[in-house]
Amino acid sequence: MPALDHQTRAVLITGAAGGLGQELTCGFAAAGWRVLAGYHHQLPPAATGVQPVRLDVTDTASVAEAFQTVAAQPGLAAVVNNAGLTADQPLWQLGEAEWDRVQQVNLRGVFLVCRAAAPLLAARGGGHILNLSSHSGRVGARGQANYAAAKAGVIGLTQSLARELGPQNIRVNAVLPGVLPTPMTAGLTPEQLAAFARANALNRLNDPAEVARFLVFLTTLANVSGQVFQLDSRVTPWT
Ligand SMILES: NC(=O)c1ccc[n+]([C@@H]2O[C@H](COP(=O)([O-])OP(=O)(O)OC[C@H]3O[C@@H](n4cnc5c(N)ncnc54)[C@H](OP(=O)(O)O)[C@@H]3O)[C@@H](O)[C@H]2O)c1
């Protein structure tokens, strides 16, 4: 366990007040990171070393303003693009507004934040960008064409940026966190959740705290970039 020094290195987490965002915020803070907790509406958890930063990832002006705060302090060493949104509908009911909104939060937001973060990470000699994608983006999901397309885009963005930013020692990886009991899945019925659990070899959903532990661990790896990590037990063909 590294010594707690919230001044040495900072991580920006988007959507820090969400179900997974709260675990990430607490997990990184407990591991000694100073957390710049990007929040949209609701405030993120208050803890030692956690600084709330208002950040709407879809809005260029909001991203620029948040990064003024981030850049005013030294030590940005990692960014977690965690903000996300679903608006599930079958194709024939999927409106353009739901399509656009899901692309804006899940994909455009990651692009805007990566573009703003890369120069700061490069100036520090490198760092980590961790992008939350989804199993839906890998295999598709009925009723989630908008979300699956956006999350597949996150994987392409991750792999491209890993190549582009590697020379600046910036590692860029994607994480598929598994189905989590968070506000995002609160609308699912017990039967739907049970079906998701049954699709796993271990017959259970994932735990946000376990995802947070994995992301903190990823930041300790110096030589891994451009990879996609799935954190559940849904077994699919290796490609
Ligand atoms: N839960 C799952 O089963 C699951 C599975 C696979 C992947 N994921 C991914 O994991 C990540 C975290 O999901 P979660 O389950 O923690 O979802 P969640 O509880 O719904 O939290 C999502 C967070 O994103 C924020 N957000 C939405 N629009 C935003 C915007 N324009 N700018 C900034 N923040 C915004 C929300 O803030 P407001 O509420 O204030 O708007 C909220 O804090 C997401 O990327 C999600 O797609 C989740």
Would you spell out the secondary-structure blueprint of this structure?
Layout: E1 10-13, H1 19-30, E2 34-39, E3 50-54, H2 60-71, E4 76-81, H3 96-123, E5 127-132, H4 135-139, H5 145-165, E6 170-176, H6 190-198, H7 208-218, E7 228-230
Parallel strand pairs: 1-2, 1-4, 2-3, 4-5, 5-6, 6-7
Bound molecules: NADP nicotinamide-adenine-dinucleotide phosphate (NAP).
Describe the fold and architecture.
The protein is of the alpha/beta class. It has a single domain, classed as Rossmann fold, CATH 3.40.50. 41% of the residues lie in helices and 15% in strands. The chain has seven helices and seven strands; from the N terminus they run βαββαβαβααβααβ. Strands 3-2-1-4-5-6-7 form a seven-stranded parallel β-sheet, with helices on both faces. It is globular, with a radius of gyration of 17 Å. The relative contact order is 0.14. NADP nicotinamide-adenine-dinucleotide phosphate binds next to helix 1.
What's the CATH class label?
Answer: Alpha Beta
Tally of discrete structural domains: 1
> What's the helical proportion of residues?
40-55%
* Tertiary shape: globular
Q: How big a fraction of the residues is strand?
A: 15-25%
Distance between the termini: 35 Å
The CATH topology is Rossmann fold
User: Helix/strand/pairing class, anyone?
Assistant: alpha/beta
Whole-number average pLDDT?
95
Q: Strand tally, please? A: 7
Reading the helices and strands in chain order gives EHEEHEHEHHEHHE
Computed Rg: 17 Å
Bound molecules: NADP nicotinamide-adenine-dinucleotide phosphate
CATH architecture: 3-Layer(aba) Sandwich
Number of helices: 7
